[in-house]
Amino acid sequence: MGMILGAIADDFTGATDLANTLVQEGMRVAQVIGVPDSATEIGDAQAVVVALKSRTAPVGQAVEHSLAALDWLRRQGAQQILFKYCSTFDSTPSGNIGPVADALRRRLGTDFALVCPAFPANGRTIYQGHLFVGDRLLSDSPMKDHPLTPMRDANLVRLMAAQTDGSVGLIPLADVMAGADTVAERVEALRQGGMAYGVADAVTDRDLRCIGRAASDHVLITGGSGIALGIPDNLRAAGLLKAAIPPEIPQVEGRSVVLAGSCSEATRGQISRAGESWPTFKLDVERIAEGGDVVGDAVDWASAQPEAHPVVIYGSADPEEVRRTQERHGAERAGAMVEEALSAIAVRLRDAGFIRFVIAGGETSGAVVSALEISALRIGPEIAPGVPWTEALGSRRLALALKSGNFGGPDFFERAFALLN
Ligand SMILES: Nc1ncnc2c1ncn2[C@@H]1O[C@H](COP(=O)(O)OP(=O)(O)OP(=O)(O)O)[C@@H](O)[C@H]1O
Ligand SMILES: O=C(O)[C@@H](O)C(=O)CO
Questions:
Q1: ipTM of the prediction greater than 0.95, yes or no
Q2: Mean per-residue pLDDT for 103-129?
Q3: CATH architecture assignment, domain 5-237
Q4: Which listed site, 194, 212, 226, 358, has its alpha carbon 20 to 30 Å from 414?
Q5: In this structure, how many other beta carbons lie within 10 angstroms of the beta carbon of residue 316?
Q6: What is the model's pLDDT at position 147?
């Protein structure tokens, strides 16, 4: 039996997050980087997650790449498609989630899709259509200051309605708690009422499993990695999944580096904690803008550090510093400068013998993994909810952990490298 489930993720850390959930739930998963072609190897994967960098791309490009990924997945046999976006939505009213979901729905010939970014293990819950991060509304969380996708509204029905040409309804928590049959009835009622999307409330994994059960016959499901919790059970019930193979730790010997471009509170805390015991190097964005050889300096610095410890190189800054930098250079240019510098550093460090990479931030991971010319990843064991170790498939063996900006506890970097030793 080949591929059963296909997924399209709008960024690279999101893709590994989803792949991790599917692996934890007993599936063999491959993650491929960018739109696959006929040469893309997926081995014996039952689920394939296509990692795109479409979250903040121009809308036309995001739609085009997502449709190309969809066509490839269906040609490989995918029977159900997940469209994975961020558990904090990360898409302003002008964002790509609605247009991509509309295009996928049309191509798949379905009139309805669920919208559910909930990820309770990382504190993302949905109630009355409102997305919470921990005990705060999304719009009161640090996501309001995101450098590329500041989230100033927490109402998913409103956010989705602003992006799509379909109508958006709600599947309230009471229905979800009542069970899969009630969810299915509500979905049918929304459909009959002409709704193209239903935002599903979910505050626990149990809720997500229930929604997953209710969606067993949906050809398209959209959401965060949590929405995938119940899908493998559906496939098992249908006799499509056999015994799972436990994920393997990547076996690679060499030096370790953290490259961070995420400016999230979580990542900044992790960098500060790592700085208590490991050498750290902060990229000077103004020097990059002036044409200074910041890449060369970072590479020389890293190579001169004792081999005993990982090194940490970061562009990450607090909201005030990010705001000043963006005022000077524009948000897009500022982001691109840091992403390009970290990518160039990654390539040169790999050539200098660094082969264990923790990369913090979705856009950052997209840029670095592309620069390293990695085409596919094998998913390994989980480091923290939503973040597995992965191993690059291909000629050069590299271990990579692509960490979503907001994920992981303060000691995430230590935990990650400790797993490899
Ligand atoms: N000092 C800085 N000033 C301005 N922009 C920066 C700075 N440092 C990093 N950036 C940019 O901020 C963006 C952070 O986005 P990224 O997706 O990497 O992290 P994130 O959004 O926290 O993670 P995720 O998408 O996984 O939640 C990147 O484009 C990065 O280059
Ligand atoms: O869903 C999440 O929060 C993450 O997988 C992600 O998409 C971060 O970029």
A1: yes
A2: 97
A3: 3-Layer(aba) Sandwich (3.40)
A4: 226
A5: 25
A6: 81
369 alpha carbon to ligand 1 midpoint, in Å? 15
Task: Quote the pTM value.
Answer: 0.92
pLDDT of residue 329: 97
May I ask the CATH class of domain 255-420? alpha beta
Token output for 314: 């970061």
Q: What is the DSSP letter of 141?
A: S
405 lines ligand 1 (CB under 6 A): yes
Asked if residue 226 has its Cβ within 6 Å of ligand 2, the reply is: no
Q: 214: left (phi > 0), else alpha (psi -120 to 50), else beta?
A: alpha
Q: How is 74-105 classified by DSSP, letter by letter?
A: HHTT--EEEEE-BTTB---TT-SHHHHHHHHH
Which residues, other chains included, contact 109 with Cβ-Cβ below 8 Å and sequence gap of 6+?
A: 219
Distance CA 140, CA 154 (A): 8
In a 3-state reduction of DSSP, which class is residue 392? strand
CA of 304 to the centre of ligand 2 (A): 34
Secondary structure of 203-239 as H, E, C letters:
CCHHHHHHHHHHCCCCCEEEECHHHHCCHHHHHHHCC
Q: Are 288 and 294 in contact (CB under 8 A)?
A: yes
Determine if ligand 2 sits within 6 Å of the CB of residue 16.
no
**Which residues, 6+ apart, have CB-to-CB distance to 176 below 8 Å?**
182, 183, 200, 201, 202, 207, 210, 211
- Phi and psi torsions of 201, nearest 5°: -65, 145
pLDDT tier for residue 204 given thresholds of 50, 70 and 90 = very high
**Residue 178 Cα to ligand 1 middle (Å):** 40
Query: What residues form DSSP beta bridges with 80?
Result: 5
Residue 13 Cβ inside 6 Å of ligand 2? The answer reads yes
Under 8 Å between Cβ of 18 and 390? no
User: For the chain, first and last CA: distance in Å?
Assistant: 35
**CA–CA separation, 344 and 197 (whole Å):** 41
Domain ranges of the chain: 5-237, 255-420
- Burial class of residue 306 in the structure, from the number of CB atoms within 10 Å of its CB (0-12 exposed, 13-18 middle, 19+ buried): exposed
What does the pLDDT average to over 334-362?
97
Pocket test for ligand 2, best of 225, 382, 383, 390 (most atoms within 8 A of CB): 225
